[in-house]
From TrEMBL:
NCBIfam families: gnd (TIGR00873), PRK09287.1 (NF006765), therm_gnt_kin (TIGR01313). The keyword Glycosyltransferase does not apply. It catalyses: 6-phospho-D-gluconate + NADP(+) = D-ribulose 5-phosphate + CO2 + NADPH; D-gluconate + ATP = 6-phospho-D-gluconate + ADP + H(+). Catalyzes the oxidative decarboxylation of 6-phosphogluconate to ribulose 5-phosphate and CO(2), with concomitant reduction of NADP to NADPH. Pfam families: 6PGD, NAD_binding_2, SKI. It comes from Christiangramia flava JLT2011. Homodimer. Belongs to the 6-phosphogluconate dehydrogenase family. Belongs to the gluconokinase GntK/GntV family. Its EC number is 1.1.1.44. InterPro entries: 6-PGluconate_DH-like_C_sf, 6PGD_dom2, 6PGDH_C, 6PGDH_Gnd/GntZ, 6PGDH_NADP-bd, 6PGdom_BS, NAD(P)-bd_dom_sf, P-loop_NTPase. This is 6-phosphogluconate dehydrogenase, decarboxylating.
Amino acid sequence: MSIYILMGVSGVGKTTLGKSLAKHLQTPFYDADDFHSEKNIQKMSKGFPLNDEDRESWLENIKNAMQSWEDSGGAVLACSALKEKYRQHLKQSGVSITWIYLYESFETISHRLEQRSGHYFKAALLNSQFETLEPPKYGLHIRVDDTAEKTMHKIMKKLELPEIGLIGLGVMGKSLALNMASKQIPIAVYNREVQGSEEGVARDFANSHPDHQIPWFDDLQVFVKSLPKPRNIFLMVNAGKAVDSVIQQLIPHLDKGDLIIDGGNSHYTDTQRRAKKLKEKEILFLGTGVSGGEEGALKGPSIMPGGDRKAYDRVGNVLEAIAAKDHQENPCCTYIGPGASGHFVKMLHNGIEYGEMQLIAEFYQLLRFRLHYQPEQIADLFLDWNKDMKSYLLSISVEILRFQEKNELLLDKILDAAGQKGTGSWSSIAALNLGVPFDTITTAVMARNISAEKELRLTFAEIFKHTEHFLEISEEELFKAYKLASLINHATGFELLRAASSEYNWQLNFSEIARIWTNGCIIKSGLMQQLSELLKDSAGQHVLSLEAFREMIETNKSSLAFVVGKSVEAENPLPVASAALNYFWNLTSATTSANMIQAQRDYFGAHTYERTDGKRGEFHHTNWSKS
């Protein structure tokens, strides 16, 4: 194995980066300063630079040691090696050397040395080092103008050592692996071998992309051993039992400080459990939401990592490199918070997505079958709406409405029974557990459930036939209704985030969450861009209370009520739009019907109630029955 020598003037970071590289390579680290004679150390401590005669014995000591290092499996050495003749002396050892030249400006290094304490090298000697320095014309040249973590990332890329290993080469896994490889992030991949169903997956993937030279494995133990320590392993396997199974298989091969990143759609409670289990074994864990589908994973998704901050600091540069970019070219990836916050935020993202998809579908249905618009007309209308909304989901709906198969609209050939993977219902359950109103998203989940009852719906459609109604609703009214319902759907989502942040002490940054949802994900929109700015200074406010939306809400609320009312009259369901309207009327009502509920609860269960003419927190019970 090669001896890796990090060279350069004092203060350039040879020791810090050398120790980090040694960890990655699982080899010993040595500092050339430890091979100086006491005489040399005393000379430098008094402010006198070493001459070539002083360095002869020093270089000889290092050269002899290097021969033994190679025999024992290699090493990393931090050594100034400023002159070419010093480097030639070390080359005489006959061992394989990989030179890594670290460099920065005199001013920057001088400032660093002035901040350093407890080291015998004096900043005043830096002049002599720069005068002596003869940069090599070979090896890796690395400018140390960034954090140690990011500089380490550059070194790993140059050395082409796997900085991260990815398990699971399904659609998303393959796309993420190619995304990393295209960003010059050294990556190794593994996929299990299952006879008859998953054979040669990793091999075929690597062979079909020869330009990237991705190391592939079908043996888990060999794959893990190929990764430099501390290891970073990205899981892209199906949520649920598969994640637990892979983690269980990995644990015997991992060491303290290794990191597992779960990039699937795991339930946040599973993430909490896994994080606790791995922490006991001193293995780091990041529950990481990834949104954007196959195309997003390949070109740049929105990434939501939560868990150990130390873990994010280690791989954040990788995640940020593969993420989509916002309008200011910042990565759509941020540290979400501790615990299971990353997967919770991804779950809520999908909840908002459910609401937005159902809302668009409802307005399509109303336009097509009650207002008798042709699909091409609806596409044109949605395209016009999207000049304002800038919504990804509206944009793809336009394309769907125009997609022909054999000169017929493909949409008309798709069965009207919506599937789901659970994240929408998970967010509804979380809202129930946290006591948060979640009208639109829960209704969207229920709408999918009822759509799945196709046979039952056909039966009832024959029994209870709909009456044809003539409807007249302007496009302006429709758009105002849609726009307000969409805002309300987003507002309920952010309220759940606020409740979870408080309950679990995650200290979520709502502005940052909105920002990373401005690109790369399914719910990216102009509204999300607006929220990313508005929530910077209004993190504690309900979205509907923000001054920026006040005029729009006042203008559009009557349109939402009108459209919902007319649609109900016409026997046409608008479940999410109706839920949005009911949520809004409830939220803006000074008095609700809940006093009747409290009286009923007290009547049959003596659950007590508070009084309007008493103090909050004082509870009363009445014997209601006259018998």
